[in-house]
Amino acid sequence: MSTELGNEYIFNGRHVADVPRRLRALEESYDPGTVGRLERLGVGAGWHCLEVGTGAGSVTRWLSDRVGPAGRVLAADLDTSFFTGEGLDNVEVRQLDLRSERPPEGEFDLVHARLVLGHLPERDRVLDALVAALRPGGWLLVEEAEEFPFHGMGDGLHREVVLAALAAMETAGFTAKWGRKLPALFRARGLEDVSAVVEAPIVPGGSSGLEWLRLSIDQLIRGGHPIQVHGRGGYEQWRRKSEDPDTWLVSLPLVAAQGRAARR
């Protein structure tokens, strides 16, 4: 990706040595909710699936097992070097920059993207491409970060740190204010059976949900995006709280929106 601040993926691997650890914590945090939604959509044998932002590949591996030998999964990411699902006969791993490349059109029973589009200033145009990739009757599931639950809940320092981190990320083109728009955006693009939920996990310190958040903010700071936290102790005090198993905090909420392409 471009190294210009406004166009760079914030969590570029060069900014932290332990990207696999961060990706693993992300998967442990959000896979249960994601897999539950995919199961309810009825993903099954023979489906053709597009996984956008495959990361370390946990959802891709689940899809591979679910669709079986008669199905296929296209696992796409800007950086595929962290993918750990090699050797799956029904999976194709492809490097794809959604800002300038489009996935195949009209081919997929399922298109899934988690924590991808919020990083792209071209997110609305990319959403058009994901809708176009659906077969008639195919499902689109998009899961994006959303900040609004933090404004009325949780520990004060925790709220300040997370909102400060999200504000810093906005300087690089990220938004955590787009997920709430997804149902309307889906309907505007002709999708049917549209619905959405907010997932806001409340987890103990030291859990994967807070480890992922902590590693993400550490990586954000190392990448040249400082956060502004006031009060005694500031960010270091928050880090200690996030590792205390007797402290329960809200991890980053997601909006999960789903919709179906019209059947012809």
Automatic annotation (TrEMBL):
Q: Which UniProt keywords apply?
A: Methyltransferase, Transferase
Q: Which domain of life is it from?
A: Bacteria
Q: List GO BP terms, alphabetically.
A: methylation
List the molecular function annotations (GO) for this entry: methyltransferase activity
**Name by which UniProt lists this protein:** Methyltransferase domain-containing protein
